[in-house]
Design goal:
Elements: E1 5-8, H1 18-27, E2 33-38, H2 50-59, E3 65-70, H3 78-84, E4 88-91, H4 99-108, E5 112-117, E6 135-139, H5 153-168, E7 173-177, H6 185-190, E8 195-198, H7 200-203, H8 208-221
Parallel strand pairs: 1-8, 2-3, 3-4, 4-5, 5-6, 6-7, 7-8
The structure holds ribulose-5-phosphate.
């Protein structure tokens, strides 16, 4: 796999032709599929559940599916997503009463596990669970909708988390989600991210390969 993962958010895909759209974005060079689950409770929007994840697997999608749960409470739905073919499951600390237990539940279900931080969520939730994390996802918009603008303070937060990961010695991906575009991806990489969720920037364009190639060209310039 590439060192930098491009993770198209299917929130902005064509839901009427989802399998085909996911095939196309993977053919265009995407590394993983970012799958946004919203419950109209933890966030003000309602999207897709395990049935859709399972349908993508049955359709033939073999790439990792990165399930971002914006759902509260979170534990009950985790085994369903694992059975449906999720590869990575991330959740928000605010949505779990016992963060360590939820991380362990994801791992016991055979998936990689991660924590998600909203723009206003402090990083202290990382204390004592770094050893259980495969991914840390920083939101650079408030969750709920695609097409929002990148919140600049996320860059400083990325630098802080990159340092924590490097100091820990654990192998943890650092993912960013919200307002990621070709023209800011280089600065985001330089701040420490290695996994880049992009929804509207990719799916709003007719040529997915051109957007992904342009993003990779910008990533290659990062110092
Ligand atoms: O989790 C999300 C929103 O809650 C989306 O993944 C995110 O906003 C991506 O969309 P865009 O790249 O258009 O900002």
């Amino acid at each position: 796999m590439n060192e930098n993962w491009i993770a198209p958010s299917i929130l902005s895909a064509n839901f009427a032709k989802l399998g085909e759209d996911v095939d196309n974005v993977l053919k265009a060079g995407a590394d993983i599929v970012h799958f946004d689950v919203m419950d109209n409770h933890f966030v003000p929007n309602l999207t897709i559940g395990p049935l859709v994840c399972e349908a993508l697997r049955k359709h033939g999608v073999t790439a990792p599916i990165d399930v971002h749960l914006m759902v509260e409470p979170v534990d009950r739905i985790i085994p369903d997503f694992a059975k449906a073919g999720a590869s990575i499951i991330t959740f928000h600390p605010e949505a779990s009463v016992h963060i360590d237990r939820t991380l362990q539940l994801i791992k016991d279900c055979g998936c990689k596990a991660g924590l998600v931080f909203n723009p206003g969520t402090p990083l202290h939730h990382l204390d004592y669970v770094m050893d259980k994390l495969d991914m840390i996802l920083l939101m650079s918009v408030n969750p709920g909708f695609g097409g929002q603008s990148f919140i600049p303070s996320a860059l400083d937060k990325l630098r802080q988390v990159r340092k924590r990961i490097d100091d820990s010695g654990f192998d943890i991906r650092l993912e960013i989600d919200g307002g990621v575009k070709t023209d800011n991806i280089r600065a985001i990489k330089e701040a420490g991210a290695d996994t880049f969720v992009a929804g509207s920037a990719i799916f709003s364009q007719p040529d997915y390969k051109k957007v992904i190639d342009d993003m990779r060209a910008e990533l290659a310039k990062a110092g």
